[in-house]
């Protein structure tokens, strides 16, 4: 009887070893997340503005510190963030409109200094100045809004210099259901 039990035990061990080393399905390859997009640094041609008000998640008013070729006077300038679009707050409040506005306000509060740079076209058909925005510590505001799901990418030619990074950030935000991508269906 002992020999039979010992034989059965050896068969179970041998079968287990065979299954472990030969017969089992290979493990799924590990999922390696895509490398996050690298946010662009503040460009050499960026200039300072001071935030006067935030209209919504992608539009604000700011005043230039020193007039230049992009903003030629010291008057208040309506700035539209390039490469992005956020849900509206007016005339009706869209899903995530208030949250996107609050996020932009937290990134660039009234009175704060921002660094801005244009792309190819400086103004849109509404007369707004089209700019990419950075905080003094180097945070790319347009990209952060997209990465956190507060904005979607909306690029109009010829202003395409940050399109690749913005689309990469949007893909990650959609995949992780961040912000509006998880809340608004």
Please explain how this structure is put together:
- With 185 residues, the chain is an alpha+beta fold.
- The chain has one domain (47-183): OB fold (Dihydrolipoamide Acetyltransferase, E2P) (Beta Barrel).
- It has 5 helices and 7 strands; from the N terminus they run H-E-E-E-E-H-E-E-H-E-H-H.
- It has a 5-stranded mixed beta barrel with strand order 1-2-3-6-5. The protein has a two-stranded antiparallel sheet with strand order 4-7.
- A hairpin with a 2-residue loop joins strand 1 and strand 2.
- Helix 3 runs parallel beside helix 4.
- The model has no long low-confidence stretch (mean pLDDT 89).
Quick gist of this model?
By secondary structure, the chain is an alpha+beta fold. It is built from 5 helices and 7 strands; from the N terminus they run αββββαββαβαα. It has a 5-stranded mixed β-barrel with strand order 1-2-3-6-5.
Number of helices: 5
What structural class do you assign from the helix and strand content? alpha+beta
| Low-confidence residue ranges | none
Tell me the fraction of residues in β-strands, as a range: 15-25%
Q: How much helicity do the residues have?
A: 25-40%
Strand order of the largest sheet: 1-2-3-6-5
| Total number of beta strands | 7
The overall pLDDT average reads 89
């Amino acid at each position: 009887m002992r020999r039979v039990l010992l034989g059965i035990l050896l068969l179970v061990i041998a079968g287990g070893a065979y299954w472990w080393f030969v017969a089992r399905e290979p493990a799924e390859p590990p999922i390696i997340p895509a490398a996050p997009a690298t946010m662009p640094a503040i460009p050499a041609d960026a200039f300072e503005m001071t935030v006067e008000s935030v209209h919504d998640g992608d539009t604000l008013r700011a005043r230039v510190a020193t007039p230049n070729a992009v903003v030629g006077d010291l008057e208040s300038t309506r700035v539209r963030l390039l490469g992005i679009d956020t849900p509206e707050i007016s005339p009706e409040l869209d899903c995530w409109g208030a949250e996107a506005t609050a996020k932009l306000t937290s990134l660039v509060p009234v009175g704060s200094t921002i660094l801005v740079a244009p792309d190819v076209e400086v103004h849109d058909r509404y007369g707004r100045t089209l700019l990419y925005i950075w905080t003094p510590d180097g945070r790319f505001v347009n990209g952060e809004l997209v990465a956190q799901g507060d904005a979607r990418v909306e690029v109009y030619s010829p202003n395409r210099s940050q399109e690749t990074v913005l689309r990469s950030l949007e893909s990650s935000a959609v995949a992780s259901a961040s912000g509006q991508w998880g809340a608004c269906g």
